[in-house]
Amino acid sequence: MLLVPKVNLKYLLILSVWVFVVVGTVYVFNFIVIYDPSVYVGGDRGARTSLIRDYLTSGQYNQLVDVANEMELDVDPMRERDFNEIVRDIETRVPFLPLDFWARQTLIGRKKMKPQCGKFPSIFELEINNDLWQTQRTSNGTYQLFGAYMDNRKSNANDQWYIRILGMIDRVDTHLPMFCQIWYDQQEKPVIVPLEEYHYIWIKSWGNAFDGQYQPYLLSCPIPWDHRHLVPVSVSLVEQQCATATNNLKVLYNRPLDNEKKMFAVCVKGLDFLYQDLSVRLIEWIELLGILGADKIYFYDLQIHPNMSKVLQYYRKLNKVEVTKLTLPAGKPNIPGLQHLFLTQKLYQKRQNEIIPYNDCLYKNMYKYQYITLLDIDEVIMPKGDILNWRELMEMISAKADHGSPLPFPSYNFRNVYFLDSHYHLDRTSPESRDIPEFLHMLQHTNRAAVYSAPNEHVKCIHRANRILTLHNHFAMSCLQGSCAAYEIDVEDAQLQHYRYDCVTTVQRKCHNMTEFYVSDKNIYKFKDDLIKRSLKTLYQLGFLKIRNDSTVSP
């Protein structure tokens, strides 16, 4: 027999009333807090904000229903842009598309320019590859075109002017007859001229020089004499002169507004540092080049670490650097990670692709600077002795090398010497080095290989911008107005300081001598105080400094 305990109804009633009172009190309390006019209107909004935040963090989303109007959205308020705004936005992303010209000449989908020969191609008909390249297929190879530039530098005895087209072709030694369709503002039909010359920017013996692999080229379209008073707007390359092209490149003509040239531009190849954060070393390097006299540094961005991108954007706002997005052409990978693997495994193709940003940088800046130099972010052209900057260095070198010649050397090359990681040396007891922060790499490495690299081996040059036709990483490939011979700088005057973990792979057999035998070289110390101050300021501004066992120091 089941026994049921006797329930005292009196106590049960008291318990029920007590629960009702407690629940009701909590509800009324919450109601008063939420709807209290002193909090709601002009009262303690901090308390109300704190309460809403508590609801959000504790997941009590049902409590937010009654206060939804007290919150606001934090989303992109961008409105739909009109046609002209979209055109301007695209031009900032893809500088070689002649979008403004096309927009002025064309209604969407309706071409106004209808010549009998050489129809102006619609932007929608161009074969754009990997965002930045334009493709033209021919009977003997495929052309991947990157940029076009107006070149009115003195080139030869005839003083011919050209449009230079930079790109890659999957042929070696190609001489296929092609035509340049040159478009000018206020003209309804193009000026059509034969392509005059292919400039191959590679040496076959270096490797990967065979048909089917894309090779770097500079193509020259002569500008007719009766059009020298006009600046071309765009150019297309075609095999049949009256064909409608699948490419149309905006012609860049970057002259300084005041027609005054600055001294030094530095060009840096496509950065591939997706998995390495070299932001601190990048800051030290940029600051040192600024001290030495670089007016601006031009970077090309393949894939980089977010912190390095943050550094470059910081300096871009200060107008000290310019960053251009870069992709690989044709079927080459541009997927993050996969691109990095490709560049590490396909070294010859990597080096051939590097030719493009180097020459793009030259042609964008040939009117704006007297000198162009190509450097990696682990290299510095270091003046020696009492010379404090590149301007003083070039004045001294020019007086020594050119002797007032009307046709000075086109390039001046600097011998390479390694400052390897294994050469690390910092005497903390020395007054001149004990205040150097441990994270400033170049200031920490003041021992170098006792032996320089061989002459013309891994050199870097300072080039005269008005004399160079095509550039390779280490030297000029072809020049204007005569010989392309470079003047070798005496190592007593300056050197190329190369900060690496190890020697480059091509000189591994010689690396033992460079690793084992080293000497002290503290030339960089003449910039030490200024370099430390500038680097620390930037690290602080970017929030990269951190007190040990504490939070980041923020500005």
Describe the structure.
This protein is an alpha+beta fold and 555 residues long. The chain has two domains: 87-252, no CATH class; 262-542, Spore Coat Polysaccharide Biosynthesis Protein SpsA, Chain A (Alpha-Beta Complex). Helix content is 27%, strand content 25%. It contains 13 helices and 26 strands. It has helices spanning 9-35, 37-40, 45-58, 83-93, 99-105, 279-292, 306-317, 338-345, 347-365, 390-401, 441-444, 511-516, 528-541, and strands at 106-107, 110-111, 128-129, 133-138, 141-151, 162-169, 179-183, 191-194, 197-200, 215-222, 234-238, 249-252, 262-273, 296-304, 321-325, 369-374, 379-383, 411-414, 416-420, 447-449, 460-464, 468-471, 476-479, 486-488, 494-500, 518-520. The strands form six sheets. Strands 3, 4, 5, 6, 7, 8, 9, 10, 11 and 12 form a ten-stranded mixed sheet that branches. Helix 6 packs parallel to helix 7 and helix 6 crosses helix 13 (528-541). The longest helix is centred in the first third of the chain and has 27 residues, at 9-35. It is globular, with a radius of gyration of 32 Å.
Task: Write a compact overview of the structure shown.
The protein is an alpha+beta fold and 555 residues long. It is 27% helix and 25% strand.
Helix content: 25-40%
Low-confidence stretches are 28-43
CATH class of the largest domain: Alpha Beta
**Distance separating the two termini:** 80 Å
CATH topology of the largest domain: Spore Coat Polysaccharide Biosynthesis Protein SpsA, Chain A
